[in-house]
Amino acid sequence: MSYTYWLPDATGAKKDYTTESNAIVIIGANGAGKSKLGAWIEQKSMRSVHRIAAQRSLNFQENTPLKSYSQAETQFFYGGNTQSNSKGARWNYGNSYTTQLINDFDDVLSAMIALRNNANDKFVAECKMAESENRIKPNTPNTVIDKLQEIWKSIFPHRDLIYDDAKFYASFTKNGSQVRYSATQMSDGERAVLYLTAQVLCVPENKILIMDEPEIHLHRSIINRLWIALEAARKDCLFIYITHDTQFAALHSHADKIWVQNFDGTNWNLQKLQDSDLPEELLLDILGNRKNVLFVEGTANSDDIKLYSELYPNYYVVPCGNCRQVIERTKAFNRSDMLHHCNIYGIIDRDYRSDDEIDKYKASKIYTIDVSEVENLFLVEELVRWFASHMGKNADEVFDAIKTFVIDTKFANMINSQICESVVAQIKYLLNGARVSNENETEAKTTLNAALASINYDTIKATEEIRFTEALNNKDYKAVLRVFNKKQISNSVGTFFGIGERLYRSTILNLIKTNKKDEIVATLVSYLPTEIPR
């Protein structure tokens, strides 16, 4: 089935589009003009569109007012006036298209009851006709309230929705007994499901349903389940969701996505997102952030993200887990045509990488810090001296003690294992870059043997031994930090400053959020890649 909708072009004129999916997600940052865009779509064809605003009341009477469907429809769809093409009463006569509080719960429930009564009246009339003509009576109808109860049960499997004497109830089993409570006593989430489902089921056929902030009052676990069920129940309608929730948009994978880049008060800058191999939620986050992007190692709560977020405050800093993910994502996102509005960089630890490997990554906007790993930034001389002075200590004495601890106590005792790990890392890098033919078995063996023959273990080991032993023998603190891979060393120096052994890094991360930030950043800038503008 094909659906038609419309969006403004660059000049603000209406432009029609078609889609095979009955769901569209319009997504953008707060303040991007999404709600105004929803109102614009509705205003271009008031009678074709039913828009449910973000400001919606979930309050209603315990006894649902009984009305005819036409009366109820006039209230919840047209705002009380079927003759006006502006839906005046619904949107405060054009003064509050995006801010008006919608208070139509009673009207929607009235419409449901009216539709049910109409279906039952039709059924009774058909039964009487069948009796008079001696025919088999028709099957009982699946009314709109039956559909409401089915969808409710799929969302709340341990709760039943009951309709009785113009009232709605929820019920559940407790200790073998049935417990019933009025719909007016439901939780916000339960009332939201009742309200939204009733709205969707009662709207006239073949409409565009615009839902502003579909996630309001709904738990993360049920949002998509609810809307997918409602889309299935109303395949005649096109659902347009307006949201800034990237997780909702990403989980709604079957929907077309429209990104609202910005709104100047008159015109929108819109982009339809094309199918991509990029992680969609992350892509949407980046699109909505309006910042340049920095992919880093670590997790959301790791020291990497905490430190880099302060060192690069004008960037959207994204933790990727490990260096391989940083490399792959930086390359992939830089290839995307959808991200031409921002610069994308990656920062990885130097680890055991050779200068040749580091230089090759630069072509893909992936850079290394000038220490072996981010944890070593906490050990650089400039920061150690600053923090010692901050703590009222003698900076020379503290630095000399930490230098001796790092080089003589730790590095010297681990140098052989560090050299071994570095040699293995170099070999893995060379193997990873080796070209092995897949033409046939003979070619594969020949190219593999050639690749292996080009890797000289003894030469690699000798090179790494020189690199590591020179740093040790020269007591070159900066060179040691450039090759020494041991994350926990910086968490073992707290006592040199008169604090708990493991408190040093966390104390620095706390201080960098205060008015000491500029001083701390100044001690680290020379260790950051110059290619990434700060």
Give a written overview of the molecule.
With 534 residues, the protein is of the alpha/beta class. Helices cover 43% and strands 15% of the residues. The strands form 4 sheets. Strands 4-8-9-3-10-11 form a 6-stranded mixed beta sheet, sandwiched between helices. A 4-stranded parallel beta sheet has the order 13-12-14-15, sandwiched between helices. A 3-stranded antiparallel beta sheet has the order 5-6-7. Helix 6 links the parallel strand 8 and strand 9. The mean pLDDT is 90.
List the helices and strands and how they pair.
Layout: E1 3-8, E2 14-19, E3 23-27, H1 34-43, E4 49-52, H2 69-76, H3 105-132, H4 144-155, E5 160-164, E6 167-174, E7 177-182, H5 188-202, E8 208-212, H6 223-233, E9 238-243, H7 246-251, E10 256-263, E11 268-272, H8 280-289, E12 292-296, H9 303-311, E13 315-319, H10 323-335, E14 344-348, H11 355-362, E15 366-368, H12 381-390, H13 395-432, H14 441-453, H15 457-473, H16 477-483, H17 504-511, H18 517-524
Parallel strand pairs: 3-9, 3-10, 4-8, 8-9, 12-13, 12-14, 14-15
Antiparallel strand pairs: 1-2, 5-6, 6-7, 10-11
Helix pairs in contact: 2-3, 3-5, 4-5, 4-6, 12-13, 12-18, 13-15, 15-16
